[in-house]
Write a structure and sequence with these properties.
With 245 residues, the chain is of the alpha/beta class. The protein is 40% helix and 19% strand. The protein has a seven-stranded parallel β-barrel with strand order 1-2-3-4-5-6-9, surrounded by five helices. α3 links the parallel β3 and β4. α2 crosses α3 and α5 packs across α6. The longest helix is centred in the middle third of the chain and has 21 residues. The radius of gyration is 17 Å and the shape is globular.
Length: 245
């Protein structure tokens, strides 16, 4: 039996969060820098625990105006402190509910830049390790963030995306470019199954590249996120793919 962790970014204002939490195995909860606040963080933690979903922190660049999607160049010490600040807050809220934080997945541009930038990746991994070496660090499959996590001895989850286009080097197509998002549900489903079952994905340039698919991201803010999540679960069940964190 194959296994896949199905994760969703939550606490970002989507009306579907509660229903998505009945379908995913891991939740990445916004920590306030790009979306969310103490109230939404606590509510998301409680709902995740109620559904036996692994609770994760979703830290970002300080960029609420652009939903964390603005490129920034900040000193590693600043990134280190901001990551500790955000993840630590969610860890405290989770602890207050009798549970523990399970993983950390950076958001948006912080995630994308850390996939390529070793210094940025190191600052994030070092902060996660300093807070709790038992935390799992989630990053783009084959990225600098995964390598930095391994350097600090952190457990990792290599992530793939159902609805994002890939470049030939394994990175995601920037959202500003054509092909960044996959809007067709059939195409997104086919891409997900190819990555999970074959460890490959077709780049926008046409060639198939290798990926390690340990966790699959479902964007909770998509218009059809809920119906697509249900479709994924049905397809996984029919193919004997177990969803688990």
């Amino acid at each position: 039996m194959r296994h896949i962790d199905l994760n969703a970014d939550l606490g970002e204002g989507s009306p579907h969060d509660a229903e998505l939490l009945t379908l995913v195995s891991s939740a990445n909860i916004a920590c306030g820098f790009h979306a969310g606040d103490a109230e939404t963080m606590l509510a998301s933690v409680r709902e995740a625990i109620r559904n036996n979903v692994a609770v994760g922190a979703h830290p970002s660049f300080p960029d609420r105006e652009n939903f964390g999607r603005t490129a920034m160049v900040l000193p590693p010490d600043i990134i280190y402190g901001q990551t500790l600040y955000q993840v630590g807050a969610l860890a405290a809220l989770t602890h207050s509910q009798g549970a523990r934080l399970h993983h950390v997945k950076p958001h948006g541009m912080l995630y994308n830049q850390a996939a390529r930038d070793p210094l940025l990746a190191d600052a994030i991994a070092k902060a996660v390790y300093a807070l709790d070496p038992a935390l799992i660090l989630v990053g783009l499959a084959g990225s600098e963030l995964i390598r930095a996590a391994e350097y600090y001895g952190l457990s990792t989850r290599q992530e793939v995306f159902a609805d994002r286009g890939y470049q030939a080097d394994g990175t995601l197509v920037p959202r500003t470019q054509v092909g960044a998002m996959i809007d067709d549900e059939e195409q997104a489903l086919a891409q997900s199954l190819l990555m999970i079952e074959s460890g490959k994905v077709q780049a926008i340039t046409g060639e198939q590249i290798n990926v390690t698919a340990q966790t699959l991201c479902l964007h909770g803010d998509g218009k059809h996120a809920l119906s697509f999540a249900r479709r994924l679960r049905q397809e996984f069940e029919s193919r004997n793919i177990q969803v688990t964190a």
